[in-house]
Amino acid sequence: MSGDEAKKEDVVNGKSEKQLEVLMWGYFPGVTAQRSPLTSPASVRFPETEVAGDSWKDVCAGGCGFGMALSASGKLVTWGSSDDQGHSYLTSGKHGETPEVYPLPTADPILKVAAGWAHCVSVTDKGEVYTWGWKECVPSVKITRNWTTMKNCEDEIVTRQSSTLTEQVSSPNDAVSGDETPKRRKVAPQQDFETSMAADETLSMPPCPVNLDPGVRITSVAAGGRHTLALSDVGQVWGWGYGGEGQLGLGSRIKMVASPHLIPCIDPSPNGGDSSGVNNQNSGGVAAEQQKSVGNYITSIACGGRHSAVITDAGVLIAFGWGLYGQCGQGNNDDLLRPTCVPSLRDSRIKAVAAGLWHTICICADGRVHAFGGNQFGQLGLGTHPNQCEIAPRLVDASVLEGKKARIASSGARHSAILTEDGKIFCWGWNKYGQLGLGDAMDRNTPAEVTLKEDYTVKNIACGWWHTLSLCEMTQSD
Fold first, then answer.
1. Domain RCC1-like spans what residues (predicted)?
2. Which of 34, 47, 315, 339 is deepest in the core (most CB within 10 A)?
3. Could you tell me which of 182, 188, 190 has the C-alpha nearest to residue 166?
4. Separation of alpha carbons 170 and 166, rounded Å
């Protein structure tokens, strides 16, 4: 009996039929009549204009105030990011209040999508990459202003700019300035990252193809504050965008990489770096053995605000970039200009990693969760004081996780989420906009379970900067 025939028979016999649904919670300007955050999970309506028979396939988080998901036919669906005048937020494209297919310049199915605070990136089933948003984040685009000039230009155009913009995109030279100091904001959601259409048109680019070397086929993408990583089918990592803190792993504080460059995440040459890093000073058989233990290729990538993390086929976690809050897990606050192993996790096989604005979380093969970096809103889930950052990985051992194994991790700007093997969602961290899905706006410094309907089986989770999405399988009985 074929699958279709079996499905028809189940319907005739009154058996249950399963379908996928996307749930959202957090800040999606425009999706509610009151234009207020969603503090509990709410269903996302599938685009009415889509062809008959299409349905949800996966969730892809989204950027500041807008969600992203994929349909079964490979269409990119976005929604949420528009202000009272119908303008988009920052320079991430025109995402309407209701879910609609986003117009990309390709008919090929989209397999993966990611979004930072000011740009988006997608990859097709042919391994081709498209990106759009802030000009600095789009490769091979001539930048007519340097970052300082662009920021000054914004200050002149945007008169009601919130402290968040300064906090998240200030110049690297201002990394420890007062504006960068973590603090609870006193602005309405509508003020965050607000910009005028004039600024959007000046500073943004529509979806453009990314030119990679011949033969390079991309399978996954990740978007950070102003940088992008792309993973190829042979386990190589390519990067472009802003690299002032080393988040592009090229060994320098290069301000702008205007075209994709290969990042030496696994370098067998014995040339510098400390013994715990990917590059080591040993030679001969010892170096070969250490190289073997690190792995041969990359299997997973993640971008934080100004740092990056990747996992090798051997389960080794490698980090590079901004280290002010310990988000690279090295036991110090130094920036990492080259990919370097997280030393305390060398004996643990890592299977998943997620990076937020100032923090990193990862999942071991045994389902345990480790967290490190900034903890200003409890985003590490350790139950510690909000201002207590962790410069080395610590186990998230909350009692609610006892006996549970995490399998998927995701991070927003300042909140974290995991999906356990038994289909439970746990969130913690910043909750001003209800992005934890717990029915209130109170921050949590330990994991808390998100309550869903009994007929939902969670398949995936994805955190945007101020929101969370989940893909659920819903059982319906005739």
1. 207-469
2. 339
3. 182
4. 5
